[in-house]
Design goal:
The chain is mostly beta strands. It contains 2 helices and 12 strands. It is 6% helix and 49% strand. The protein has an 8-stranded antiparallel sheet with strand order 1-2-12-11-6-5-4-3. Strand 3 and strand 4 form a beta hairpin. The longest helix has 4 residues. The protein binds FE2/S2 (inorganic) cluster.
Amino acid sequence: MSETLRGRVVGAIDVGHSDEWRTIETIDPATFEATLGPLMRVPSTNELLIAYDARGCPRALGARCPHRDLPLAEFARHGRRPGTIVCTAHRCEFDVESGACVASEVREPVPRLLSYRLVPGVRGWLAEITEEDTAR
Ligand code: FES
């Protein structure tokens, strides 16, 4: 396994080919209209979702909000900045690339959202798990 800025790579999760990802439809709370994104489901696991960072690169994200463990497939919407998502439960906004909470309306510290780099695999993409990811 290789070395990254976030430590040694200790594993990988198959998230399939981008043709297989299915954009999640959500309801815009302001207009009550259906809207697409920002997250996509992958066929091989319910533990990870896909979103694009500010550079347009896909990342695999943990499927649960790190604030109160709610399902992001239900609560996530597009963030105010490019490459961010917001969990509408308590308005925590996460940077897709780093997983850092960049804005929130809660007083307590919010843990980082799991965010994995994708690398090409044999039949699609692999989410690369590093030592830093497993330490949390
Ligand atoms: S559960 Fe997501 S912001 Fe609180």
